[in-house]
Amino acid sequence: MLIRQNNGARLSFVAILLLLCGLLSLDAGAQTSRPGGGSQQQPSRRPVSPTTRVIGPEQRVAPVSRDIDRFCAGFIEHEAAGIGHEVVGGEQEQEQHTYAEGDYVFINAGASNGMVAGQEFSVVRPRGRFKSEFSRKEGTLGVFMQEIGRVRLTEVKSNVSVAQVTNSCEMMLLGDVLRALPPPLPESSLGVIAQADALPAPLPRSSEPTGRQQGRIVMARDLREMVSRNQVVYIDLGREDNIKAGDTLSVYRPLGHGVVARIKNEEITQNTHGGFESEEFRGGKFSNKAQRAQRPNGTGTFDQRPVTSPQVKDARPAMPRKVVGEIVVLKVEQRTATAIITRVSQEIHTGDFVEVQ
Fold this sequence. Notes:
elongated; 6-stranded antiparallel beta barrel
């Protein structure tokens, strides 16, 4: 009983001390806040070391492409390699038929085929032979290979291996094909686009031919027909055209081309004369959508036939081509290359021209 009382006394004494400390600190705070009570104490700041450098936005850089763009871009392979090893099963195939990052799948190759635990492979899905009316190259450009993801072998048996999906671009299916990982890209192809003050000069609005290799954008990833910055496209220039990973190409189109729908006489309006003024006030016989009257002929009078934009375009001098963007090559095949759009001045269309800078 005595011990309990002593403990209680100790606790009471500690509580009183804490209360007195709190009152003293409140009084000190009031002293510093009074108008005549001297200067208020400012919170201390950590001194900045003279070796500390604050990195501003002008010193930040961004890579031209992300890992997902390089791993999942796909490519058009001219001479498609044999099917080889495939994904033939899944650990959870009794519950699912698609596989993604983290899942385990089975490969129809093992130690007898030279497989070793820890090996990594790219997984692709052949989509079929591809040819384009935009390309000047005869015949097929190759087989379009969609990149599905990557796997790493975790267990190797005699004729079968277990692999874990380490990267997913799309849901993996049985029958998808294994390929050796592509070689790492050269540093030049991972060049940087500086930000802020270090931004490159704006794209020119027009350009003249440089005499270097020219081609076309024949397709875009996910079958888009209008694409913009950071999206992947395929061009009909490859190793046979001396294209290399990291090359930069301008994207351009001739003036008057690239519209979604073409109409021969795009200024479809009512006739230029007759029947548009009111019967009472006679404000004018022309429609406010009237077409342009033909230029004066030899007699000095205006012909009532309308002027159309195609007529003006046919009579004008050679016009500069319009620059719409810039691309950097990521992967090169025999007849084609995969590229990513790095700069744009407007949307880019499949069929647009490209030229090596």
